[in-house]
């Protein structure tokens, strides 16, 4: 279908009501748009501030019809919305990213094969459709990580295995679903790149972030990454190549491993990304405004970094014995920006918010972020 710029006060649609959707709603409201959120959780963070919250499942026919009839453009905040739903909605209104792009990103086998076929280096991997596909002991792929092909995130649906017996047990624990067996690498560090691409093929690429994880969940992002300029630029170039090969429209994040100085693509997310939260406070245009701009056909915003930044995730673990964390200590730091997501209740491992420390000197920013992290009792 032909594409025209969509201007305020148009109604936009968001599939998913988590924190990424919430930030999208905030960006949309600031620019004069209205938003309908479809999410089955009555307490969804985005649903609570949306103009309309359709509290229904993502395949609910009545809710989808209402979105199609009232929204001029629709996007998503997470990759596990069935791609078939996006395909149906695209028949009557603008939908970005496309069902095809999401279907690739939400399936680890398709994702690995796509990236590899695009000529971008990845860690050695084996597609596992059945127990007989698991390599025998002594294969160079061990030790490795077995990952379910679908619905795995933040360390879920993954198991570390060092031999065939362990791999078989993990495969059976995953109910023999299709998996990817990926070689564990000796990592120097990890980086990610968030970018936006519009329907005309224009691309705006954010600085490369350096990431560290705790229990499989992103813990800290440092921007710009403390990596050689060559690695930073190579990551940005490869991420842009992936977006172009996908003919992607919207915000895309690509995670990379750096092993023995070599950059390897890990996975991609067809949406704004946790490691891009720093853009809210440290960039001229944040990733959520970019998502909106790409969706409605506005020119992409300036991605210039105006401050050094460190983003730290806040999980439900820091609500100890039912007590609120030490917000007074956090608010005492003038260089720190706190963002809480309005989730109904804290749980261990649940992303409840984040803070970003910004400043002119990276070393100082990193030190201050580490201090604030300790004051909250993270880790």
Descriptive notes:
A hairpin with a 5-residue loop joins strand 10 (189-197) and strand 11. The chain has 379 residues and is of the alpha+beta class. The longest helix is centred in the middle third of the chain and has 18 residues, at 229-246. The mean pLDDT is 95. It folds into three domains: 11-95, Rossmann fold (3-Layer(aba) Sandwich), CATH 3.40.50.20; 124-183, Dna Ligase, domain 1, CATH 3.30.1490; 189-375, ATP-grasp fold, B domain (D-amino Acid Aminotransferase, Chain A, domain 1), CATH 3.30.470. 44% of the residues are buried. It contains eleven helices and 18 strands. The strands form three sheets. Strands 10, 11, 12, 13, 14, 15, 16, 17 and 18 form a nine-stranded antiparallel beta sheet that branches. Helices cover 28% and strands 27% of the residues.
Q: Total helix count?
A: 11
Sheet-strand content, in percent, reads 25-35%
CATH topology description of the largest domain = D-amino Acid Aminotransferase, Chain A, domain 1
Order of helices and strands: EHEEHEHEHHEEEHEEEEEHEEHHEHEEH
- Rg, nearest Å: 21 Å
For the termini, the CA-CA separation is 49 Å
The main β sheet shows up as:
9 strands, antiparallel
In round numbers, the mean pLDDT is: 95
Which class of the largest domain in CATH terms? Alpha Beta
Number of strands: 18
Q: Uncertain regions: pLDDT < 50 for 5+ in a row?
A: none
Q: Say which CATH homologous superfamily of the largest domain is assigned.
A: ATP-grasp fold, B domain
Q: Can you tell me the CATH architecture of the largest domain?
A: 2-Layer Sandwich
* Coarse structural class: alpha+beta
Instruction: Give the fraction of residues assigned to helices.
Output: 25-40%
Identify the overall geometry. Answer: globular
The overall number of domains is 3
């Amino acid at each position: 279908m032909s594409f025209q710029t969509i201007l305020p006060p148009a109604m936009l649609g968001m599939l998913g009501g988590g924190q990424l959707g919430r930030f999208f709603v905030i960006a949309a409201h600031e620019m004069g748009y209205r938003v309908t959120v479809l999410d089955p959780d009555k307490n969804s963070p985005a649903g609570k501030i949306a103009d309309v919250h359709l509290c229904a499942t993502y395949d609910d026919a009545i809710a989808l019809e209402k979105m199609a009839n009232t929204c001029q453009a629709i996007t998503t905040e997470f990759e596990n919305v069935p791609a078939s739903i996006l395909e149906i909605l695209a028949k009557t209104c603008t939908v970005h990213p496309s069902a095809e792009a999401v279907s690739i990103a939400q399936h680890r086998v398709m994702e690995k094969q796509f990236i590899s076929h695009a000529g971008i280096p990845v860690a050695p991997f084996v597609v596992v459709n059945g127990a007989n596909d698991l390599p025998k002991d002594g294969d160079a792929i061990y030790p490795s990580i077995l990952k379910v092909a679908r619905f795995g995130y933040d360390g879920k649906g993954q198991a570390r295995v060092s031999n065939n017996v362990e791999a078989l047990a993990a495969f059976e624990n995953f109910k023999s679903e299709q998996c990817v067996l990926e070689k564990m690498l000796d990592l120097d560090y990890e980086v990610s790149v968030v970018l936006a691409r519009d329907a005309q093929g224009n691309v705006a690429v954010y600085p490369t972030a350096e990431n560290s994880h705790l229990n499989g969940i992103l813990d800290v992002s440092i921007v710009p990454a403390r990596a050689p300029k060559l690695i930073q630029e190579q990551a940005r170039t490869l991420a842009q190549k992936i977006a172009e090969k996908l003919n992607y429209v919207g915000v895309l994040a690509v995670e990379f491993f750096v092993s023995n100085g070599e950059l390897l693509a890990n996975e991609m997310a067809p949406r704004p990304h946790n490691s891009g939260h720093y853009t809210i406070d440290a960039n001229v245009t944040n990733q959520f405004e970019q998502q909106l701009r790409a969706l409605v056909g506005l020119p992409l915003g300036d991605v210039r970094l105006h401050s050094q930044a460190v983003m730290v995730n806040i999980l439900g673990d820091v609500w100890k014995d039912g007590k609120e964390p030490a917000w007074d200590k956090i608010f005492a730091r003038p260089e720190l920006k706190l963002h809480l997501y309005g989730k109904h209740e804290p749980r261990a491992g649940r992303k409840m918010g984040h803070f970003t420390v910004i400043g002119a000197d990276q070393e100082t920013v990193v030190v201050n972020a580490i201090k604030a992290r300790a004051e909250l009792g993270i880790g």
